[in-house]
Records
---
Amino acid sequence: MLSMSTSPPSEVTIEGQFYSGNDSSRRGAVLRSAAGVIIVDAGDTRLRLAHDDMTISPRIGNTPRYLHLPDDGVFETEDNAAVDQLSRQSRRGRGNRLLHALENHLGLILVAVVVTIATTGAAFVWGVPWAAQAVANALPDSIAEQVGDSTLTTLDSTWLEPSSLSEERQQALQAHFEPFLTPVAGKDLRVIFRSSPAIGANAMALPDGTMIFTDDLVNLAEDDNELTAILAHEIGHVAHNHGMKGMVQSSLTFWLIVMMTGDLSAFSDATVVVPAVMMSLSYSRDMEREADAYALKAMTDHDLDPTHFVTIMERLMAAHGEDHSPEAEEGTSRWDSLRDMLSSHPETGERIERFKQTP
């Protein structure tokens, strides 16, 4: 607003607005500094201060500067050049001047951007999974039981319905599964059956060791050993504590994004959500591979032919309209690859090949 007067070089004169701190009114004022003394003249108010009595706000571009005075007084001005000159008279201003210089150094800005991106990526790729695993393992079994019970209650009130399988059929399957239902990771295992037109042929493991088989999956199998192969996979999820780890990971991913953006509403922004969702899905693919590895070993230990897993997976693919033939794979487009990347499971063909290669 104002310019420097024709005073000696050591003297600074700045025009601005003065707020007394007693009310919200503002008055035009002039601040003068000379010989280590600062005078603020706001008409009926005149302050005589030392440099140590005043705090100068950092320079951020060309935004107004605020000089904080005793008794909550504030002097506001847009004359950044004059404020910079004033700050040079104060030893306390050196830090702000250094910060301003760093903020305007293009090379350092680019380095900071690269470091920030690398740190953020490392946090999502390695930090969140490691922290989620540590937290999940530290949680008492009672938490897993509570989560399992509440999840089952929610599913039963939304997507799941009572099973239409006969009591005899359910008991026969329970007897067939019995050799695999020994406790793992300190959790007792149990299998329950539900009908779910919304979910279709599927199975899922809850954090407390409860495993749900849908009627459609049971009816899809042509051999009960195929269902046992699926059971071994679901037990793998329980053994690796994937239920609790997945829950913790989702929470950590969400709150990490909130901390980065500083706003819960930012989570609705697609540019923020999509990378987080893709990362969470990647975690799920890793979990599926661990569960597959567990299932393969369990089937081998129980002398159960791994091809049972292959046949039920191929039948599931056909039921879901997927094609794993060589001709179909050759014609896979980039959009199909993107769809697989967004899938929560590894490519089904990849999983089948792993079981086929087992002697």
Note: Residues 18 and 75 are 5 Å apart (CA to CA).
---
Amino acid sequence: MDHYTRESFILTDSIGYYLARARNMVKTDIDAALKSLDITAPQMGILLSMSSNRATTPFELSKSLAIDTGLMTRMLDKLETRDLLRRERSVEDRRVVNLFLTDAGKEIADQIPGIVPGVFNRRLTSFSVDEFNELRRLLKKFTDA
């Protein structure tokens, strides 16, 4: 079933519009909340993915966070310059670069869970538990398609 047609499509009433708007609003809120740590929302994703061992290479991070490899490289450069992570070539395969959080990177990653939930909770204030669960279920369904 098609939910949109050429005649019925209105950009500012589309799923894409609302998803982009929601993403931008949440990113802005998270950036503000993380200002004291001097990191951005995308950098937060990298640090948390690494601290939970969900990703250990630039490719894995790019895939997991849906960030193109060029932008990922630039973000990793900034985090490495700030001594929050380090890169090491794999001894088994010199083409592979492994990433490791430094002590400073681990310290910042440990602080994020005490900050970011408040950002989401403020946005979800008017949601019931059922609405929250349904929103999460539908977004998962949408992103898994």
Note: The chain has seven helices and two strands.
---
Amino acid sequence: MELRLKSEKPIYVQLCEWLSDMIISGTIPEGEQIPSTTEISVEYKVNPATALKGINMLVDKGVIFKKRGLGMFVSVGAVEKLKAERQQDFQQTYVDKMCEEAKKLGISKNEIIAMIERGFENE
């Protein structure tokens, strides 16, 4: 992961997103331990409190839980929770705004679908 120190996103949010990506991709499977705040802070040269703040965002969502004396672990169902949250964010951030702009420009639903299909073909 590369932290963008000059990004508008706070570092703890970037850490939260990085851990979320690792959980969604299966790099850290459900039931497995995540890196400790110390490991994260040393590896990425951030304050341990910053690392903990990013982890706590996932704890608050019920994606990560603490086993006393052992560390933090990925909850069962975490992948589904994270995907559902990201899909909702995707809808609000991209799809709704795209549709709003398309209406302003007079672009039809079929034209948008064709544009999206072309985008998938370019992969």
Note: The CA atoms of residues 35 and 72 lie 8 Å apart.
